[in-house]
Amino acid sequence: MDLFERLQGMKVLLVEDDQWIRDSLRRFFANENCALMAVETGEDALEIIKGNDCDIIITDYRLPGMDGLEFLKRAQRINAPFKKILLTAYMTEAVISEAFRLGVHEFIEKPFSTEDLEEALVRVLEKKIIANGPGPVKTL
Q1: What is the per-residue pLDDT for 1?
Q2: What is d(CA 49, CA 78) in angstroms, rounded to the nearest whole number?
């Protein structure tokens, strides 16, 4: 099955402060008949997930207000288990370590291409999420 056939009907949220990236990815998903909710800040994203379960959340690390890792930490308290992809141009050991602790499934280093995103999405969809009660989500 094609990646985008698998994504149809799934709720994917993008948290990215760069409007060009948000608009480009929204169009890219729409061209593949898939919906992408896209917001600028972690605060906006938290408002969305309060009323929507998301299957996949793609977030930038550097955001205005709270950073992407803080957003994921708060989102995990609100939403059912979801798959996490972190976009970053700041791939430091501290960021990677905290991201792993939060259960980030994939990293995409900026600048990135749509092919990089597609490959990360394929890998994420192959991973199974196991909810283990309160706390971090484990992946297999």
Answers
A1: 67
A2: 7
